[in-house]
Amino acid sequence: MTFLKLLIRNRLAAAGAVVMALVLLLALITPILPLPDPDVTNTSNRFVKPFSEGHLLGTDHLGRDLLARLMYGTRLSLAVGIAAAIFAAIFGAAIGIIAGYFGGKTDNIIMRGVDMLMAFPYILLALAIVAALGPGLTNALIAVAAVNIPFFARNIRGVTVGIAHKEFVDAAKLAGEGHLRIILTEILPNVIPVIVIAMSTTIGWMILETAGLSFLGLGSQPPQADLGSMLGEARSALITNPHTSIVPGVMILIIVMAINLLGDGVRDALDPRLRSGALTRPRPSTAVARTSEIPKPRETGTMVLTDLETQFHVGQRVYKAVSKVSLHVEPGECLGVIGESGSGKSVTALSIMGLVASPPGVITGGSARYDETELIGAPYEKLRRYRGDKVAYIFQDPLATLHPLYTVGDQLCEAIRVHHKVSKKEAWQRAVALLKQVRIPNAEGRAKVYPHEMSGGMRQRVGIAMALANDPDVIIADEPTTALDVTVQAQILALLNDLRKERGLSIIFITHDFGVVAQLCDRVAVMYAGRIVETGPTQAVLDDAAHPYTRRLIACVPELGEGRRELHAIPGLPPAVDKLPAGCAFAPRCDKADALCQVGTIELEGNGTRAVRCIFPETKLSEDVA
Ligand code: ADP
Ligand code: MG
């Protein structure tokens, strides 16, 4: 089980678990141990020092055996603390879930009540409760549980509010499920980890609080021993016979330390966000762990990738998202990168500027050169200077890339001022000019609106304007039109086309749509399972694709005015990149494949302008004419 593994990997938590297990075991077997009766007094034998015969830890002011009292006291303190924690968790969670789930007035009334309880110092409140109920261990337990209920209620309500409006809860309501059922089957499973975490971090606290009440004489009553009352009774002999205080004191220290260490470990191991590594701060640039020399570039251009390899290392698994990808773009050229979803297009694009999140991403080899400068493994400062200034990105979802609380003008200004020392006013003028350049009507006015006030097409134009803000030489566009409708898509493509002609921009255009490639790109590279399977000039590839996969991708695009034609979906799914088969990754879905296709490595072979990774290409590439 991963939970236990994670817990044991955390050394402090493991130590806490071992100590706690020992203490619990001792507490459980106390009645069968050969201990003297803890409550029998023997005044002639008062204050015997520890390590004397018959009394390993000595005796107290009434001559009772301290070891026996310690064992029975620990047993009692643990039982009361744990019981209080369970009560507080159950009642607190119930209150929190009801308040968070029903919201509105119910929430208001319940939470104001909880706030009132929280306004009292907790120990004062506990004292008041015990005073009202009368001293005794059961009442101390009730008091400690009661003062901790608000803590649980607040915590759980917060989590519940976040869940109660999620789509799956709405779906359950629409399906006609009752409130109780929704709470039990939809909400509760989501908050249980939080309850367990809150419990594991508060049990120690509750044991201390119970001990505190007993210390004041309000908890366990003589002659019954618990850790708190032992401390209380030893108080008068603190100076003359310190061992009577030290014995229970050390035990409390050990228990609370062990529980807290264990609790922290449980929290870290249970929290799904911590577990997936999402809360580990990603490094500012992708980790680079080369397994081979930096390869010499074989092509020229503004951006040249050679044998780029990017992997994700998750636990023992290695996902080979990008395997030996080589690409290049010349100034003013547009290169299309095409492939099904999951073929490694985005990871290739993000690797160039070190934008793949690490962990888990690792670049394990290859080179990416911008204008003779190696980017893979370049120092972070250098990458930072190039990002957005020389090489800019346009992402698929502009709503996710724009900040919701700033106007688009401000965000454009920020992009400019990161790389250029210009005044706010100059930056603003430039921002407006950029918006005009991407054909946003009434640019002065639109610069002052927030992202949510714009349409999807407008927002994507803002994304393009931002990419253009610092006059980059290379733009990497990762499916910039996938979320848009076709008319807006056509406008955006025309815009990018004009820009590259005007400015001599190199564009790497990622898409899964051959129609888009045909409109915009000079050359195209087809990716499958992290590898390039075919490259060549767009027209040549479209007219006469060599790789069976490319053929099938092209066959998926409907053609207007060509009469009725059956569209051929590609059967099956791309392989998982952590278990890539030998040979051609497309073989299982290819009707031309035979046994030869499933062994060894199949190389990308070509004639200088075109290349294909296939032993049985659909068309023979002509000998190099150049
Ligand atoms: P696309 O071609 O659709 O842009 P991506 O480049 O996003 O595909 O993804 C390529 C592969 O990398 C996919 O198979 C995906 O499963 C894998 N991948 C992406 N991110 C992670 C991650 N954080 N952990 C493990 N695998 C990942
Ligand atoms: Mg993608």
TrEMBL record:
InterPro entries: AAA+_ATPase, ABC_Ni/Peptide_Import, ABC_transporter-like_ATP-bd, ABC_transporter-like_CS, MetI-like, MetI-like_sf, Oligopep_ABC_C, P-loop_NTPase. The chain crosses the membrane at residues 12-33, 76-102, 114-134, 187-208, 245-263. PROSITE patterns: ABC_TM1, ABC_TRANSPORTER_1, ABC_TRANSPORTER_2. Belongs to the ABC transporter superfamily. Belongs to the binding-protein-dependent transport system permease family. SUPFAM superfamilies: MetI-like, P-loop containing nucleoside triphosphate hydrolases. NCBIfam families: oligo_HPY. It comes from the Bacteria. GO terms for molecular function: ATP binding; ATP hydrolysis activity. It is found in: Cell inner membrane; Cell membrane. Keywords: ATP-binding, Cell membrane, Membrane, Nucleotide-binding, Transmembrane, Transmembrane helix, Transport. One of its GO terms (biological process) is transmembrane transport. It is a peripheral membrane protein; Multi-pass membrane protein. The keyword Magnesium does not apply. Residues 74-263 form the ABC transmembrane type-1 domain. Residues 303-554 form the ABC transporter domain. The keyword ATP-binding applies. GO terms for cellular component: plasma membrane. This is Peptide ABC transporter permease. Its main location: membrane.
